[in-house]
Write a structure and sequence with these properties.
Helix content: 25-40%
Order of helices and strands: HEEEEEEHHH
Strand content: 15-25%
Distance between the termini: 31 Å
Structural class: alpha/beta
Radius of gyration: 21 Å
Length: 213
C-alpha cells in the first residue's frame, strides 16, 4: 500500500492522506464526515495561465417510505455527497517553478526546493480543502416528519432538498475561502503580487473575497 501511495503521489500535487485507498492509480479515495472524496491526477488545461486546484461537489438523493391510510409512518432518506479535488496546470507550465505568491513564498517555504514551487503551492490548496472538510461538518438534510400525507411528504422532501443543495453550495464556497486565506495570504500575499503586477483584485483584505473553482 505504501508503494501505491508513493507512486500515485507523483501524479497529483495534493498530498495523499495515509488513510486513502488508491484505485488503479487513477484516483485516491477516502471518506470524510460521510462525504466520498476523490483526489485525481493533475491535468493540463489550456485555458489557465499557471495552476489551479479545483474542488467540485455533487450529491445524489433517494428515499423510501411506508404509508398507512394515506399517511407516511416511516421514511428513510439516502444522501450521498461526492467531492473531487484536482489540480490543473496551463499548457507548458513548469510545476516545479517558484511559487509567485502565498504558500511557497514564506521564509520557511523558501528554505527548501520542495516547498517553494508552484506544485507545492497548489498542493496546499488540496490539503486545505481536506482539512476544512475534516473539521467542519457538512449540512444535514432535514427529513420530513411522519404523519404527513404522501403528497405532503413528497412536497416537503423536494423543498428540503432545495434548501440542502443551497447550504451545500455555501459550505463549499467556505472551503474555497478558507483555502484562499491560508494559501494566498501569507508570505508574498496575492494582493501584493497583484499590486506589483498592476492588477487591482483584492483577496486578503478584510472586506474582500474570491472564488476558486
Amino acid at each position: 500500500m505504501a508503494d501505491q501511495h508513493k507512486k500515485f503521489q507523483t501524479k497529483t500535487s495534493t498530498p495523499i492522506p495515509r488513510n486513502a485507498s488508491i484505485y488503479r492509480q487513477e484516483k485516491a479515495r477516502l471518506t470524510i464526515k460521510g462525504m466520498i472524496v476523490a483526489i485525481l491526477p493533475d491535468k493540463i488545461e489550456a485555458k489557465i495561465k499557471y495552476g489551479r486546484t479545483y474542488i467540485k461537489h455533487s450529491y445524489t438523493s433517494n428515499y423510501k417510505y411506508n404509508a398507512s391510510n394515506g399517511k407516511v409512518t416511516k421514511a428513510t432518506v439516502y444522501i450521498k455527497i461526492q467531492v473531487t479535488i484536482q489540480t490543473a496546470y496551463g499548457k507548458g507550465v513548469n510545476k516545479l517553478s517558484l511559487s509567485a505568491y502565498g504558500r511557497g513564498t514564506t521564509k520557511a517555504d523558501r528554505k527548501s526546493s520542495k516547498t517553494s514551487t508552484l506544485r507545492f503551492h497548489e498542493g496546499q490548496h488540496g490539503a486545505d480543502y481536506l482539512q476544512y472538510m475534516r473539521t467542519h461538518t457538512p449540512p444535514l438534510f432535514k427529513k420530513p416528519k411522519r404523519g404527513l400525507t404522501e403528497a405532503e411528504w413528497k412536497k416537503t422532501y423536494e423543498n428540503n432538498i432545495e434548501k440542502f443543495a443551497d447550504k451545500l453550495d455555501k459550505y463549499f464556497e467556505e472551503v474555497r475561502k478558507y483555502s484562499n486565506k491560508k494559501t494566498h495570504c501569507v508570505g508574498i500575499t496575492i494582493d501584493q503580487y497583484h499590486k506589483d503586477n498592476h492588477h487591482h483584485k483584492l483577496q486578503c483584505s478584510p472586506h474582500s473575497s474570491s472564488k476558486r473553482l
